[in-house]
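Lab meeting notes turned into a lecture example. A postdoc, R.K., suggested we walk through two folding results consecutively so the class can see how the record format repeats. The first protein's sequence and structure tokens come next.
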Amino acid sequence: MSQTEQYEKCAYRFYLQRVERVQERPAAWSFQGTAFHSAAEKFEKEYREPSEEEMVQLFSDQYSKMVNGAMQKEPNLDWWMTANKKPAGQDIEDRYKLGQSQVREYVRWSEVNQPEIWVEDDGWNGYDIEDAPRYDLKMGLELYFKVELGGVQVRGYIDQLVRDEDKPGQYRVRDLKTGSTKSPFQLETYKVAVEKALGVKVNKGDWWLGSKGTLSPKKGVDLSQVTEEQVAERYVKMDQGVKAGKFPANPGFDCGFCSVSHACSFSRAR
């Protein structure tokens, strides 16, 4: 899924990353996002029983482990990617603190709002979390999917599939964001994948924003009119372009956030 949007934004970046397999520059924001998602998933999977401090510690441990691993592979911090040209050492420290804060915000938000996570039908009505069965269920948390759209295999993970409070029997797809980029196409793909693979009706999607500690938009993004054909069209176009060997460059603002810009003769990230 992310491959399609990457190809649309800059097909040459797609080529360098996925065809040439150019070594990518590390970035602390990637480790921050991964560690945050691990903490949020564990908190929900364990029925919101872990404490806030336990989740912050989980984030801290995972973030530190990933950063240390990346530093062993690339000890030259001048080569790391950062936002606003901040020194990498400072960026690593800042994102450690920011990630901890975002975990705290998520735990507090979830405890107050009690999102009702989808579970595979097992007789539990999903309303009273205290009555939830305590064995391994297929839950709407980091939910893996693989579907065929327009003849193209599409796979990915959905952060959360939750019951829509406004529409009984329907659900929302939710993406947890530690950064600022929001992708409507991502939500559209999630909607189609869930309905196609699970037979669960999805009418809306939204983002939980770590920067604000709340949902955006609160009423959700209307996905009721999104069709499989509409979403498949973009995947088919990307697939055809890749097979035809079409990888045009699109240099611009995004070059500053490209992990393979060092290997690109078109890059404006200097």
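The second example is placed directly after the first for contrast:
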Amino acid sequence: MPLLEKSIIKEAPQLPIGQQYSEFVRMPADRALQISQRSDFLARLSAAVAPFTLSVRSTALGLGMTGDAPAVTVARRVFDQAATLDHMAAVDTIFSQANLDAVVSGAMKRDLAFRLEGLIRPVRPLSFAQMALMKDLLNMSVPLIFGVGPTGTGKTHLAIAAGLTLLARNDVAHLVLTRPHERSDGDMGTSSSETDRGFNDQIAVFYDILYELTGHADIQSLINHRRLEIIPLSQMRGRTFNDSLVLIDEAQNLSARRMRMAVTRTGRRSRMVVTGDPSHVELKNGEPSGLAHLLDMLKDTDIARIHAFQPRQVIRNRTVARIESLYAGTPFEGFVDADLHDEEMTAETTRH
């Protein structure tokens, strides 16, 4: 039996994420026209489903929707509600922000969970930004992916979940996890120091996520069969990783020199994921971050897919989301409560 072979979660529906998708809701022509002219609501709807796209058009028979499948799914739920009400004044209640938030939450829970192999529970996205990131993580044609933004947005958790799934599908032969060693004084570890207990404490987050996703026995089996490696970043030097998915976590704490070394390690049939928060750099002596440097060089190229998370997309904890908004100097725009998603797996762990 292949390692990590588990049954696919049957309760999690699967939509054609990444494909253009169309739906139609029948309703009186005058109501469809009025809804299509509600630019304020349509703008909020588009913002709610970003970075996915959505267009809405009225016809003599109702409302048509075209766009990315997750966005169309949410729009269909809202317009189904509007079609059942007797008059436009009642329809206005459907367009409230509270109702839109509830529809988005319901769609995330019931329609948009990821059906992933190799995991013991479904991964339920808590933001459309998470869903867009996962779409690229599972797309073997995307060689380099960045997930950047505040802590608590689920970047590392999603990358590891995708890596385990790709192992289960035999899309890759190896999953490699690494991050720089951060000493208590802010200095970055050398090749000798990165094997000490301090480094082991800092990679505990990887084990927390791995055990939560698939259990101790499977993780130990993957390590024993050399399909999973958790290594100090300095041990990447001189190596070439073939048939692998490589995750570099906390990449904001790499200098430009070390970043160049790390992102050039992938070989044949390999992909790399880089995660970090460019606003939270802990390099010594004010040294600039190699993550910010590389992201700047990648502008206007097609080398990588870059997913930028915002403070409003923090899903770890409401207080954390508010604090990140304060640090970023942006208004607090709400919080998706994971408790609303029952006690199923969410795309975040308690330690990251």
